[in-house]
Amino acid sequence: MKILIADDDPQIIRALKVTLGASGYDVITAADGASALGEAIAHHPDVVMLDLGMPKLNGIEVIEGLRGWSHVPILVVSGRTGAADKVDALDAGADDYVTKPFAMDELLARIRALTRRVVAAPDSPAVRFGDVAVDFAAHTVTRTTAEGGSIRLTPTEWRLLELLVQNPGKLITREAMLTQVWGQGHSRDTGYLRLYLAQLRKKLEPVPASPRYLVTEQGMGYRFVPE
Q1: What is the pTM of this model?
Q2: How confident is the model over 121-137, as pLDDT tens digits?
Q3: Pairwise CA distance, residues 33 & 17, whole Å
Q4: Which of 203, 132, 216, 134 has its CA nearest to residue 173?
């Protein structure tokens, strides 16, 4: 599996190249944003890891450039810890965000999570989690227990569930969810989001007060965590 690492810090490049190489990954490197795009086009990596503060093209510009033609998972690894930087990167199309300094075990776990999502990501008409089955073709949600039965969702609940479940493992920011479900004029109406997510959890989670699948990322957004 190929990983493209884009960072202008040669020490980080060397450390990641050694560690990821020892873990069985084929590592490609780039020291600036323009080179990162070129390497991505040339090698079609399975995961892209990039810093935000790079020369020539910054990380946001690289993400936007990649998203113009590729769905490759993008993991931002940056020293910028502000919520605004994280939101900007995620809204631009990044799939996850790790701040420097980072624990290597956590970084490897994030990479594994992203690559599992890639394996599971072909456009499947149905997804199962817990005792719930979501059929996108039939537009239905049902219980898979012996008792069975359909779960009625409102159109808004369905759109939120669809957005989360079709992006397994990916953090979806509150602003992105509000804009896609309610429209551009509602990007700050976080009360709507909390209300509908609470309703979804009551209908779908085994323990709604301690969600297992529809998880809150505090201050940032929500994530669907598959089995």
Answers
A1: 0.56
A2: 444 567 889 999 988 76
A3: 18
A4: 216
CB 28 within 8 A of CB 4: yes
Name the segment(s) of the chain with CATH classification 1.10.10.10.
126-224
Q: Which residues pair with 128 in a beta bridge?
A: 133
**3 state SS for 130-182:** CCEEEECCCCEEEECCCCCCECCCCHHHHHHHHHHHCCCCCEEEHHHHHHHHH
State the fold for domain 2-120. Rossmann fold (3.40.50)
The strand pairing partners of 140, in sequence order, are 135
Structure-block tokens of residue 143 = 């219980």
Quickly tell me which residue has 């479940």 as its tokens. Answer: 165
Residue 137 burial by Cβ neighbours in a 10 Å radius (0-12, 13-18, 19+): exposed
The C-alpha torsion from 153 through 159 and 161 to 164, rounded to 10°, is 180
Spatial CA neighbour of 77 closest among 12, 168, 2, 173:
12
Candidates 3.40.50.300, 1.10.10.10, 3.40.50.1240, 3.40.50.40; CATH matching 126-224: 1.10.10.10
Give, as one character, the DSSP assignment of residue 51.
-
**Cα-based torsion angle of the residue sequence 96, 11, 36, 222 in order, rounded to the nearest 10 degrees:** 10
What pLDDT digit, counting tens, does each position of 179-215 carry?
778 776 666 777 888 899 999 999 999 999 999 999 9
